[in-house]
Fold this protein.
Amino acid sequence: MHDMLIRKMTEADLDEVCVIEQETFSEPWSKDDFCKALRDINNGYLVAEVRDEIIGYCGYWGIAGEGNIYNMAVKKEYRRQCIGFYLLEHLIKEAVKGGISSFTLEVRSSNEAAIRLYERLGFQATAIRKDFYTKPKEDAVIMWLGPIQ
C-alpha cells in the first residue's frame, strides 16, 4: 500500500488502536494497558497509518534481548494486503537496532493466516501451550524467531 506510513505509536493513537483491538480480540487490552506498554522504554510499538487513519499496529515487550510480541492487529477492511507483514518486518528491524536478538509470540492454533504470516517472517512453531486462550478456549502455538545477528 503505497500511501501507508509506519511510525511509532503515541498515546494520541490509542483511541483508534483500542477500537481495532476490541474488534479483533475476545479479551482486548484496555487503553491503560497500552499506556503502560508505551511508557516502558524496553518496549516498541508501531502503527500503520493511511490518510490520518490508524489501520494496524503491533508491539513487543523487550526483556533481556528477547522481544515478546504481544499485539498485532489490522483493521478488518485492510486485511489481506500485507499490512501485518510490513508492520512486523519494520518492528523486528527497529527492535534489532535496539538490541533485541530473538522474538517469541503466541498465536491461536486455529489462526492459520497469522501462523503463515509469522512463518513468512522466519518464525518457527516450537511448542503448544494447552488451553492458553479463553473465549473460546484454545491452545496457543508458541513461535520463535532468532537469534538475529
About this structure: The chain has a mean pLDDT of 91. The beta strands are 4-8, 44-50, 53-63, 66-74, 102-108, 124-133, 138-145. Helices lie at 14-24, 31-39, 83-97, 112-120. The first helix runs from residue 14 to 24.
